[in-house]
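Appendix B. One record, verbatim.
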Amino acid sequence: MKCPTLPQHPVPALPVRDDFDGDQLAFQWNYLRNPVRENYSLTDEKGKLAIQGSPVTLDDMDSPSFVGHRQQHIQFTATTQLDFAPKTSNEIAGITLYMNPLHHYDFYVKKASKGQTLVLRYKLGNINHIEKEIPVKKGSIQLRAEGDWSNYTFSYSEDGKTFIKLPPVNTYFISKETAGGFTGVYIGLYASGLGQKSKTKAYFDWFDYEGHD
C-alpha cells in the first residue's frame, strides 16, 4: 500500500533583525533554566529589550539575566546595539558566546575610573582571562560576534559604521568536543551585578543574526 503524501508546510525564514517591538520575545530566544521574569522588559522603553542584572553571573549554575539565540551556522555574524550606563563597578552588560557556565567568551561594558570600558573575557574551566580592556565613550555602542570554521571574532562600533576587530579566539575551546554537552553555543545578551542586584538596566535596541553557510 502506497503511503499518502503529506502536505508540506515549510517554516518561513526568520528576519535578520529582531527590533524587540513585540509584547513578548520571539520564539527563537531562550532563557537559561528558570528565569526571574522581573529582570526582563519589552515595555520600559518601547522597541528595546531591557535586562536588569541579578547577583547571578554566567559562571554560576543558575539562571543569570540572559536571553540566548542559538548559533545556527558555522559561519555567522551577530550584532546588537547596547545602551548601558553602569553606575557601579559591579554592573556589566554585553554579548556572550556561551556553551555552559565553565566555557564562554564574554564581551561587555562596565564602569571604569573615568568613563566606561569594553572588556573581552574568556572563561575556560578554571581559567578566567581578561584579554582586552578598551576605553569607550558613554552612550550607544554596537557589539558584534562573528564565527567561522576556526575562530570567533568580536568587534565594536561607537559610530554605527566602522567596526574595530579584536584578536580572534578559537572555536574549539567552547565546542562540545572540549566543553561536553550536546546543545551547542548560544549568542547571548546579558547583564549581571556580579554578586549583587544591578541598579542600572541594560537596553538592547535590536539584534541581527546572519548565517553565511
